[in-house]
Amino acid sequence: MKLALLICLAPLAPLAQAQIDIGFYRQERNGLSLYTTAPLNTIHTVMFCTDPSDGQSACHTLKPYDFTQAAEVDFVMAEQRVRHYRISKRILPHAKTEQGIAIINAQQVTQTANAFSVLAQRRRYKITTCTGSEGINLDLYDGPHKLRNLYFYLGYDITPTCDSASPSDKRPL
Fold first, then answer.
1. How many Cβ atoms from other residues are within 10 Å of residue 97's Cβ?
2. Which of these, 52, 76, 159, 162, is most buried using a 10 Å CB contact count?
3. Which residue has the higher pLDDT, 148 or 80?
4. May I ask which residue range the UniProt record assigns to the signal sequence (predicted)?
5. What is the dihedral of CA 60, 118, 138, 143, to 10 degrees?
6. DSSP-assigned letters across all residues of the chain
7. pLDDT tens digits along 37-65
């Protein structure tokens, strides 16, 4: 009986790893960098979406095998060490901004003025963005529950648009 149970659960293990997650990307001259706290594996897809104010309605989808893993970095998310992946091509050549969000393991993304509605694992999630004093806040919600907050440090002052300053918006001196 126990052996049969283990055999039945073994095929479900990869599905359990395909959770929704978020990150940031930055386009550079020689390609694109993806920064996330999530490890990428072969079952994930990654959607790159420009800031909704950029006027683009579609996101661009890539698979993890398009990327190579680079060294972890600590300079983009409020000094938190994060995973860094590289791709050697520009994927959104007409975008006005050089950075945007990455949505990991989404089946469908719809953009609105200040949020993204995401379908993943047969559930609806919401991703919101706003700016702090020196960076971009990215929040992932499952209904009213905040699942994750990421902060992308830009390195220069900007006008805050967040309702209240997030703790991650306070960069240590």
1. 13
2. 76
3. 148
4. 1-18
5. 180
6. -HHHHHHHHGGGHHHHH---EEEEEEEETTEEEEEESSPP-TT--EEEE--GGG-----EEE-GGG-EEEEEESSSSTT--EEEEEESS-S-TT-SSSEEEEEET-SEEEE-SSEEEEEETTEEEEEEEEE-SSEEEEEEEETTEEEEEEEEE-SS-----SSS--GGGS---
7. 888 877 778 888 876 555 555 678 888 77
Token output for 94: 């007409």
- Rounded distance, CA 107 to CA 163, Å? 29
Say which residue the tokens 């559930």 belong to: 123
| C-alpha dihedral (85, 89, 92, 98), degrees to nearest 10 | 60
Contacts of 162 (CB under 8 A, 6+ apart): 130, 131, 132, 137, 169
Tell me if 87 sits within 8 A of 67, measured CB to CB: yes
Tokens 């089946």 label which residue? 107
Nearest 5°: phi and psi at 87? -135, 140
Other CB atoms within a 10 A radius of the CB of residue 87 amount to 17
